[in-house]
Amino acid sequence: MKDSQILIKKLYQTMDTLALINSVQDLDQLLGLIMKSIKEVMDAEASSLMLLDPTTNELYFSTIEGGSEKVKEIRIKADQGIAGQVCQTGKPLIVNDVSQSKFFLKTVDKFSKFKTKSMMCVPLKNRGKTIGVLQALNKHNDQKFDEDDLNLFVAFSNQVAVAIDNAKLYNMAFYDALTKAFMRRYAEAWLETEYARVQRYHTDLAVVMFDIDHFKKINDTYGHQAGDYVLRELSQLVKANIRGADVLSRMGGEEFLICMPETSLDKALQSAERVRQVIADKAFIYEGTPIPVTISLGIASFSQFPEAEWKKFLKDADLALYHSKEHGRNQVTIYSRQIKALQKAA
């Protein structure tokens, strides 16, 4: 029987983890947190989440902690392997020596170069359906997974399934399905709230509006699927090159907005130039065909032009973007007195 103090400690760890999980609504962040927590609470070498693709009836590695990222390239049929057995039966399973299991798939370890010795696997269910499986692999110090571990893991998975479902609903409500950037309505609601705060406390704010140059030509030349590929890749690249506090949203079509809280004009310009350059340098290759992609950007800075309302502030960035497009594209323009004068003249 496991020492009661260790079990109580794990119960508290699990409760703390679940409280944190249920406060997280970004799906990628949530899944990463789940895997890290499983690895720690279950005292395992690695953990993984396999989700069921209902269109192909295959399991794929969605998120892992420890082990090899190469497993994300693997898909297995939903009736194969230990995970497949758990997915099919809907019943949890402990295998403390995988070499003795008739269900174990050696091909996964062979491909990933990870050595699986023991495994605890439980189904992830939501609304009566199995949506995937959670796995804890290789308990430390060659210990065995036991019934206490399994009971804790099952309770954990029940709450995780609900949290994942809630996060998916959140993502559907606020994230653009294609690019995974925020939707326009989220960005506008965020900006309205942040702008009021900036006005009240006299802090700083910058917004960068940008769109893809000649995007219609990309669609016409390479096809709409290639256009979708460009939008997805570009969004991921932009997110990788801005701060975690910055808000990226798709405003419609090929137009995007980056909101940068607590950011001076100089810092916003540096960030915008970095984004512009990485896009220009990126090799966008769709089905073997390279697609040239550049973006035009416009910046509005609160410290330079503190407009009375956020909609006018956003319009300033849009006018700066328009100036970039009218003067050669693939460049950054800051909203200025000159552009303001041109606006009044028009």
Characterize the structure shown.
- 47% of the residues lie in helices and 24% in strands.
- The chain is α+β, with helices and mostly antiparallel strands and 346 residues long.
- It has two domains: 4-172, Beta-Lactamase (2-Layer Sandwich); 182-345, Alpha-Beta Plaits, CATH 3.30.70.270.
- The chain has a six-stranded antiparallel sheet, sandwiched between helices. Strands 7-9-10-8-13-14 form a six-stranded mixed sheet, with helices on both faces. A two-stranded antiparallel sheet has the order 11-12.
- Helix 1 (4-21) runs antiparallel to helix 2 (27-41).
- The radius of gyration is 25 Å and the shape is elongated.
